[in-house]
Design brief:
The chain is mainly α and about 550 residues long. It contains 20 helices and 5 strands. The chain has a 5-stranded mixed sheet, covered by helices on one side. Helix 11 packs across helix 15, helix 16 runs parallel beside helix 19 and helix 17 packs antiparallel against helix 19.
């Protein structure tokens, strides 16, 4: 099945869901050899499979439960990401698959293990049948899709009841955030749903990309008060396109709109379904960067190429983020940590993916830049994206503060300023209205807890601020705002005082809000401790009285 069957009218060359083999125009089959325990196994999947489909292949081959956590190691005993990018190997270089965290949840009221086993067996047989059909005919017939849909429907029915959860995770099905939307549960998107979702996003973007925004919306897009929760993915892609147009980057760098659209859609495909570091976060950072460009009148202080660097770096700064931070990558000795020698592995990866997209002829929005411009663009992009590594935060902010007299003509000063701008945009949630910013805290804590739970299962170090047993929302926010955000924003406000009211003031209000929440939480805890102590004293007093009465009774009898 070709790309146009999925996305009629898709700009040529966009890769992602059903991409073609480079030279022959067809997906190609990958064969992966691995060992689990003492057993040698192999899996086969197409190069255009989704990450969930690849993981499902490994689950079927090992007959593991969907709730099991699978980890794949190469011959150097380094963790390898189970994804369509997995490198084919040989019988002599087998990977090692380990099932870690096969945690069992109570199912006294739930589905019997026999039903789970039956569904897994059906899925495994269906996968093998589909593989054989595709190998012979080159396509999946409708009947197989129908069978898969029926199995999927049964699984979804199980997930709609808390104690029947197929994945063993307990969801708050009635939970609502302040915007009135259901709280997203990021483990629930299956591969077919991802395909359907991306189709919907593309078609929405396709319908919108020639629409003209109202002037009121264009002005709203420039404000830090912009409510990013009100926009769908396809609409956010369109708004990003509008940013390039309104900043005159399309005109000044001869960017063809179909190429810009292909670039933006490929970016969307390259963000993962993680609780926090997802495409909505990408848009949130990009929109704040766009707003800062207008608020600080950066077009008069930076050249056009530097404005382009800022916008594209914001768009690409977290591409293919797995939801596990650099500390995890290094401690778990993942493939990324090995590749980049433990030096900002994620940020290096984000930049690398960005240039993979830009190197594609059909999404290369910088193809009309001169050789010298290309060199400056690449250097600026890499330095700005690497600056978002929080391990370098103090180093970069200290260097920026050390500039006594800022020289706008100095290339070094301008680059450092650009790094600060991207850092501000990257961690700018608290600069937004509380009803926009607070849901992001829940998303971030969810991602933190997801990582710390995995670290505990794997015996890796756990950061206290990510441990669900040690951190709360107010304690996490108070320290972050006080020691990270305010010093960073103050450093930029020295140079651009115009950000104090629209950007810095909301951050100070957020600090007061979470400080008050923390104080009230401590008062509740202290009151609870006091009541517990009173109950303990009362029990001790009662027991003492009873002992005296018993002794008196014994003496009386004697």
């Amino acid at each position: 099945m070709d790309m146009q069957s999925y996305y009629p009218g898709l700009p040529p060359g966009v890769k992602g869901i059903d991409t073609h083999e480079m030279s022959e125009g067809r997906p190609f089959l990958k064969v992966i050899y691995f060992r689990i325990g003492e057993t040698n196994e192999q899996v086969e999947f197409w190069s255009d499979s989704s990450s969930e489909e690849v993981k499902e292949c490994f689950r079927c081959a090992t007959e593991s439960d969907p709730s099991d956590i699978l980890k794949l190691y190469n011959t150097n005993n380094s963790l390898v990401n189970i994804s369509p990018r997995l490198t084919p190997n040989t019988l002599d270089t087998r990977y090692t698959l380990k099932v870690v965290g096969a945690k069992k949840y109570p199912n006294s009221e739930g589905v019997s293990p026999q039903i789970n086993d039956t569904l897994l067996s059906i899925e495994k047989r269906l996968l093998n049948l589909e593989k054989k059909i595709v190998l012979h005919s080159g396509d999946t017939p409708p009947a197989v899709w129908d069978m898969r849909a029926k199995v999927e429907k049964l699984r979804e029915q199980l997930e709609t009841v808390e104690h029947l959860s197929w994945l063993g995770f307990y969801k708050d099905l009635d939970g609502k955030n302040k915007k009135g939307m259901s709280v997203p549960w990021f483990g629930s998107k299956k591969s077919k749903e991802k395909l359907q979702f991306s189709q919907q996003v593309f078609h929405k973007f396709e319908r919108l990309r020639t629409v003209e925004l109202t002037e009121a919306t264009k002005e709203l897009l420039k404000k830090p008060t912009f409510d990013i929760w009100q926009w769908e993915d396809g609409e956010m892609l369109y708004l990003m396109q509008q940013m390039f147009v309104d900043l005159k980057l399309v005109e000044r760098f001869y960017i063809e709109l179909p190429m810009l659209q292909a670039f933006l859609f490929q970016v969307h495909l390259s963000y993962n379904y993680t609780p926090y570091h997802n495409f909505r976060h990408c848009f949130c950072v990009t929109q704040m960067m766009y707003g800062l460009i207008w608020l600080c009148n950066l077009q008069d202080k930076l050249d056009d190429l530097e404005i382009l660097i800022l916008l594209v770096a914001a768009i690409c700064h977290d591409l293919d983020h797995p939801g596990y931070n650099n500390a995890y990558q290094v401690n778990a000795r993942t493939e990324l940590a090995m590749l980049y020698n433990d030096i900002s592995p994620l940020e290096n990866h984000h930049a690398s993916i960005a240039f993979e997209i830009l190197n594609c002829p059909d999404s290369n929005v910088i193809k009309h830049l001169t050789a010298e411009q290309q060199k400056k663009f690449r250097s600026g992009m890499i330095k700005c994206i690497l600056a978002t590594d929080m391990a370098r935060h103090n180093e970069i902010v200290t260097a920026f503060k050390a500039i006594d007299t800022f020289d706008i003509e100095s290339a070094d000063h301008r680059l450092l300023m650009m790094m600060i701008f991207l850092k501000v945009a990257d961690i700018s949630n608290e600069a937004r209205p509380m009803d926009v910013s607070e849901p992001w805290v829940e998303c971030l804590l969810q991602e933190f807890f997801m990582q710390s739970d995995a670290e505990k299962l794997e015996g890796l170090p756990v950061a206290p601020f990510m441990d669900r047993e040690k951190v709360t929302k107010p304690t996490a926010q108070v320290g972050f705002i006080q020691y990270v955000l305010i010093p960073l924003y103050e450093s930029l406000a020295r140079l651009f005082p115009e950000i104090r009211e629209p950007i810095l003031a909301p951050v100070n209000r957020a600090f007061d809000y979470y400080s008050d929440m923390s104080r009230k939480q401590k008062e509740i805890e202290m009151a609870g401790d006091q009541k517990a102590a009173e109950r303990k004293t009362s029990l001790a007093s009662t027991e003492g009285t009873q002992n005296i009465e018993r002794k008196s009774s014994v003496t009386s009898k004697e």
